[in-house]
Amino acid sequence: xxxxxxxxxxxxxxxxxxxxxxxxxxxxxxxxxxxxxxxxxxxxxxxxxxxxxxxxxxxxxxxxxxxxxxxxxxxxxxxxxxxxxxxxxxxxxxxxxxxxxxxxxxxxxxxxxxxxxxxxxxxxxxxxxxxxxxxxxxxxxxxxxxxxxxxxxxxxxxxxxxxxxxxxxxxxxxxxxxxxxxxxxxxxxxxxxxxxxxxxxxxxxxxxxxxxxxxxxxxxxxxxxxxxxxxxxxxxxxxxxxxxxxxxxxxxxxxxxxxxxxxxxxxxxxxxxxxxxxxxxxxxxxxxxxxxxxxxxxxxxxxxxxxxxxxxxxxxxxxxxxxxxxxxxxxxxxxxxxxxxxxxxxxxxxxxxxxxxxxxxxxxxxxxxxxxxxxxxxxxxxxxxxxxxxxxxxxxxxxxxxxxxxxxxxxxxxxxxxxxxxxxxxxxxxxxxxxxxxxxxxxxxxxxxxxxxxxxxxxxxxxxxxxxxxxxxxxxxxxxxxxxxxxxxxxxxxxxxxxxxxxxxxxxxxxxxxxxxxxxxxxxxxxxxxxxxxxxxxxxxxxxxxxxxxxxxxxxxxxxxxxxxxxxx
Amino acid sequence: xxxxxxxxxxxxxxxxxxxxxxxxxxxxxxxxxxxxxxxxxxxxxxxxxxxxxxxxxxxxxxxxxxxxxxxxxxxxxxxxxxxxxxxxxxxxxxxxxxxxxxxxxxxxxxxxxxxxxxxxxxxxxxxxxxxxxxxxxxxxxxxxxxxxxxxxxxxxxxxxxxxxxxxxxxxxxxxxxxxxxxxxxxxxxxxxxxxxxxxxxxxxxxxx
Lengths: 569, 208
Hints:
The complex is a heterodimer.
Chain A: E1 9-14, H1 18-29, E2 34-37, H2 67-73, H3 131-140, H4 150-164, E3 166-167, E4 181-182, H5 189-201, E5 208-209, H6 243-253, E6 257-260, E7 263-271, E8 276-284, E9 290-293, E10 295-300, H7 304-313, E11 338-347, E12 353-356, E13 363-365, E14 384-391, H8 405-413, E15 419-427, E16 436-443, E17 449-454, H9 459-478, E18 483-487, E19 529-531, H10 546-565
Parallel strand pairs in A: 1-2, 1-10, 2-6, 3-4, 10-19
Antiparallel strand pairs in A: 5-13, 7-8, 8-9, 11-15, 11-18, 13-14, 14-15, 16-17
Chain B: H1 3-13, H2 18-26, H3 50-63, H4 77-87, H5 91-112, H6 121-134, H7 139-142, H8 156-170, H9 172-178, E1 189-193
Helix pairs in contact in B: 1-2, 3-4, 3-6, 4-8, 5-8
């Protein structure tokens, strides 16, 4: 297929994160000339990971946060567990690139501002949706029905899993379909003990490996995990999936990729005569120079919030409420997962062994509530899963211990006699029209209106939060700890956005009157426009969503390439 | 293992064509890496007087003494404390610290006839224990979860202990000679044997 002379590229992809990288790979491998526009700085694989393996004594303030700088430049990003001096250069500078935090309602928007986006710092959890997840809206009437079934997506899950490398264990559960797994990571003895006890005293619970996009077996150009620990600082060996390690090199290898960092997309230009996007307008983040590019098709992979912001800002006479928004739902039905509710148990067994290496993931307890049908004792619909971790204490956990001298020194450095098992739920959020993002009157330094949020958790989430804590305590106690305590605040759920699973706002559906995108992530109203980041999500499931975004992206690329080849687009 | 050695090791691990790209990437930007930057404690500080430096060194060594392994002074903790008080503390925190220091500078010679750093080990310990007893209802001690921001109104003794403990266990000496350190484990063994006297692994990242 040849690029027609009147276009700069066959396809322009906005964003180089988890979905943008996938769009670049799939489209270039089909022979299409692709331009990827990334608003952030370039970060090269390996050489761009400036904080990787930096020990405490090399870090500013030996690892204590630079409080003045973070309060000034990273007031939102620095709230996050994964943020540190060793990876600060990956995160958005909240002063330079703000959103309207003082409008609407509280919402934490954690965002990268580099090539690779959040694929560099993500949690790497990779779960398939279940058939029940894709039918949830149709079953209980919240939101609109999904236009696809699990069977439509399953081959694309396999396609993605094989390429990114997911380590996990097959369990044969209907509510968490198995995938194409590399060998699972090893378990701590205490985790095996907990599993054995749960099989007897809580047989409804499955404890399995967290399915994680970290290699336990080499893939071409990437090596198995070396267990250093803090993945979010970048990984030179490409042992976890990121755009840098995986999709962008594949796209580059075709010779069909052009990647432009520092390219802030301002708006898409709609041509009423053809009914298509005719150009994309870009501001250079370094020089502030403006220019436009043209292509036959456009893929928005700029993150849920970024893509919807762009569509809203691309309003025109034909689309006064935002591009491709004849339905009026653009910006609405924003969702996230609420988290940090669960329980902690301390165990005195297995104090005869320690560990070597840092396993950069934990175990997972798949959804067990309302599976197949609603549980009689559940005062909520849908469900949740738990991520679990083992903590072996060290000096940081006793930073404020009383005492002095050799006894204190020994206490702070000796091996702990206990293991701590931590479990925290990720709860599904219902799609609601009132939960939305919108454009503020305030503009950023590029002249683009800032985003503001109106988002509140609902009664179903609050009821589920109470159950998450109650069941977590039941599960931990069933595992026979020395003692257990509940964690999290069921009265005040986590700050919206803190799950970093923001999704929805350009949902897909069969009815153009109720959805922005069709079943192939193609805009109902504009045939050469595709949106494949989390904004297409019609419901939220309770599992971490990135794998699903990747699968839908690959599928949309396949469809778009066919449409381009057939001359339909 | 330093950063360059690590990257070379990483390059060897990676199969196929990526190797050549990696060798190219290795040759640039090395000097910008945190892992090859100057140590934080190599910065100079000019906040404390000579007498105050002696006092802080003696106090830090009382908190974490040299035993069969290095102590706070061996690990450069006194200088770390001065840097942090000068560089990292806000004005209110610094005022608390300097007032605590001034109190010891004045009170100890008045009570004992000589400065803190010239007292015997037991006397130094007794002075700090008395400070801790007086501060024991501070929220600093009550934090079950130490994943928290620095407690800005923590008393002097708590500031001194937090900076000493933090500075010691994040120092190169404390990390390598008191704790155990391996930035490239290459495997995960969940049933690693324990021997008497074993210490914990230096954590690969820090609570904030």
